[in-house]
Amino acid sequence: MRYARQEDLQKLALIMQGSAEGISLSDIEREFRVSRRTAERMRDAIRNAYPQIEEISGESGRKYWRFPPGSLGRMAEPTLGELTAGHRAAAIARREGDELTAETLERLLVKVQAMFREDRRRTIAADLEAQLMADGVAFRPGPRETISSEILSALREAILAGAMISADHRARGTAKLSRNTRLGPIAILFGQGRQYLLAWSEYQDDLRLFALAGFERISLEADVYERPKGFDLQEWLSKSFGVWREEPHDVVWRFLPEVADEAAGYVFHPKQRAERMEDGSLMVRFRAGGRQEMEWYLVRWGDHVEAQFLEVSGTSSSDATENDVCKQ
């Protein structure tokens, strides 16, 4: 039997052209989540359609297949959907204050579209404009911080190099300027409105968040910073709500029946547990710090949500008292 899913075959051909080492049958199984027999049929379909494919023998006799560079010609041109996704990513980056990434993506997209034939370029330009207008990402209003592109470039260079930095940073709350602060940068965290650097502070000997807008000077140091062994960024972030770090609470939110369906469409925390109650309300439970940011967020639900914030010291949600309940 022949394999007939054209989109999968095109994707496989592009993967084969993009790999210097080639693609094995096991790689096809993993990438497309298919059986060994189906992987063989896909390979055979590619070989029948493109005789220029190369077969390479690897270790233990395992075989790999690849295309010489440029073999697929214009088949590898980006689609309208892919170009739209690129422009959407640039718009989101600019909206969140990451001008450097937005400009880099836009330069890349210009280069990609310059590779099209003239007739194709005209068609894509018209369709892309219509798609972006319908998307509306770039036009969403709302406040954002202005972050220096030089600061972002220096931080990214330090993170990639694993280098310590010396920085002058102004605290958001107190406006106090700390000079020559030595930090070990780990990650830049972009969110809604406020952006942060997660870094190890030499002075505090701990991981801390620093507002990106607060950096006034950054210079790379000669010594190397190694992130803590076994550190997992996603696990670290899962203990917070937003970017706030504090002692965690066992959080219980009850969304009243009239908004329960809407609330069920949200993921409020990556480790949440949601339960629909007999009265139609939705109960959401998770453990995290950041009570102030939670309360700011809950304001948008008006009086349709009730919240409990319980200390983690062994109390359960059933132990809540009237003083624990916050009606927004």
Summarize the structure in short.
The protein has 328 residues and is an alpha+beta fold. It is 36% helix and 24% strand.
Explain what the structure shows.
Residues 314-328 have low confidence and may be disordered. The radius of gyration is 26 Å and the shape is globular. The chain has 10 helices and 12 strands. Strand 9 (273-276) and strand 10 form a beta hairpin. Helix 2 packs across helix 3 (36-49). Helix content is 36%, strand content 24%.
Count of DSSP strands: 12
Percent helix: 25-40%
Q: Measured on Cα atoms, how large is the radius of gyration?
A: 26 Å
Low-confidence parts, pLDDT < 50 over ≥5 residues?
A: 314-328
Order of strands in the sheet with most strands? 6-5-4-3-7
Biggest sheet architecture: 5 strands, antiparallel
Q: Give the distance, in angstroms, between the N- and C-terminal Cα atoms.
A: 62 Å
| Helical run tally | 10
- What oligomeric state best describes the polypeptide chains here? single chain
Please report which band the strand proportion falls in: under 5%, 5-15%, 15-25%, 25-35%, 35-45% or over 45%: 15-25%
* Average predicted local confidence, pLDDT: 81
Give the structural class: alpha+beta
* Principal-axis shape: globular
- The helix/strand order is HHHEEHHHHEEEEEHEHEEHEE
